[in-house]
Amino acid sequence: MTPILPRRDAADVAPPGRLAVDTDTLTGAGRIVDAVLAGGDAAVRRWAESLGDLEPGAPLVIDRDACDQALAALPDGDRALLTRARDRIAAFARAQRDVLGDLDAPVDAGRAGHDLAPVSAAGCYAPGGRHPLPSSVLMTAVTARVAGVAQVIVASPRPTAVTLAAAALADADAVLAVGGAQAIAGLVRGVAGLPPCDAVVGPGNRWVTAAKQLVAGRVRIDMLAGPSELLVIADATADPALVAADLLAQAEHDPDAAPWLVTWDAPLVAAVDRALAAQLADLPTADTARAAMVNGGAVLVDGPEAAAAVSDRVAPEHLEIATGRPRDVLALCRHYGAAFLGHASAEVMGDYGAGPNHTLPTGGTARWSGGLWVGTFLRARTWLELDAAAPAYASLLADTARFARLEGLEAHARASDRRGDSNPA
After folding, report:
1. Percent helix, strand and coil across the chain, each rounded to 5?
2. Domain count within the chain
3. pTM for the whole thing?
4. How many other β-carbons are positioned within 10 Å of the β-carbon of residue 100?
């Protein structure tokens, strides 16, 4: 019988080579972005209505009062659930913020430093579509607020009551009720009375990703997100049923998702495949999950070092280490978006607010980037204050002038020389 999780040789596992978005999508998104940046409210409405985000004549923006009403109308259990998730996300973000600080340090002839300041306005995208993700509202908007962002706008197409309630709990100012490239461009431009955003973050489909790529440089973006990825490094101590369940949890996101199992225990591979077959039998999203399996695979290796080498080539969004000594294995790994250590640390707990953010790099970009965090919304503004009476000041002036002439920039050199001419020291 053909295995559900294809068998792969370690030597054949290559780094992801796909572009974040294809050329056709980038071109189509470009037309929408250009139209919205030029046309504002009317263009957003035209695209949102034509693409089914918005009923004709419906408001573009849902204000905070309506979000608060949605929160109040939620069943008590759902409201308490969202509140607990919000509080965990905020606590972790505050802990991150607390390790960051302003700087004031001595330099030759004076002092220099930086102060950390939030952007003024942030746009936080949350997918609607088949599976609306209020969790993404909390992950993005709560983190922005903890960073100190003054105005936080959520964008989501056809927002559900739970999405609006999550926006209220996250202390968002309003919800832009459209999606896709038109939402991203609307957040950048500022539409329907909303402020132009300095940062635009959050996961979305290929149209959202294409639009974020196009506006990068006008605003800060967090990343260009692609299909979800999970790589599980497991040994003989792993429960095959739990490994299968975790792989399916990522595979059900999208037919393009990539689930991987890497192990040095041969019997585990067959046991996980049997568990996959059993769990797929009554899984409502089985068609999607089964299609995603072909994008990953099961890789049998010689030991932890070889497993880490395979993982580093994939540079997975999520790395789960289901071994007896997970920290020892983690120490061998270099490239991943978020790690989940030990049999109790299911990746899905990260998805739903255990603490760390679930907005993570995909497509191999974990080799050079990390996930969304409070630092995404902060700027380090440096300053320099020199003392002309300091002993090192004359030497610094001379070095500055000489370096400027080395680069052929005489006006730079003279700006330094003039300070030396007027310096009484």
Report:
1. 45, 15, 35
2. 3
3. 0.94
4. 14
pLDDT of residue 14: 85
Question: Which residue among 253, 318, 335, 358 is the active-site one?
Answer: 318
Domain boundary among the residues 225, 251, 271 is at: 225
Answer yes or no: 55 catalytic. Answer: no
Q: Is 318 a catalytic residue?
A: yes
Task: Indicate the residue among 192, 225, 258 that finishes a domain.
Answer: 225
CA distances from 339 to 233, 318, 329, 388 (A): 11, 6, 11, 50
pLDDT per position as a tens digit, 74-93:
999 999 999 999 999 999 99
Same domain, 196 and 291: no
pLDDT at 252: 95
Q: Which of 252, 317, 320, 347 is catalytic?
A: 317
Counting as low any pLDDT under 50, the low residues of the chain are 425
Q: Residue 424: how many CB atoms within 10 A of its CB?
A: 5
Place of tokens 């370690």: 10
- The pLDDT of residue 21 is 86
- Distances, alpha carbon 84 to alpha carbons 118, 329, 355, in Å: 25, 31, 11
Write out the two tokens for 137: 């509202």
Burial profile 134-162: b = 16 or more Cβ within 10 angstroms, e = fewer: bbbbbbbbbbbbbbebebbbbbbbbbeeb
DSSP codes, 369-389: -----GGGGEEEEEEEEE-TT
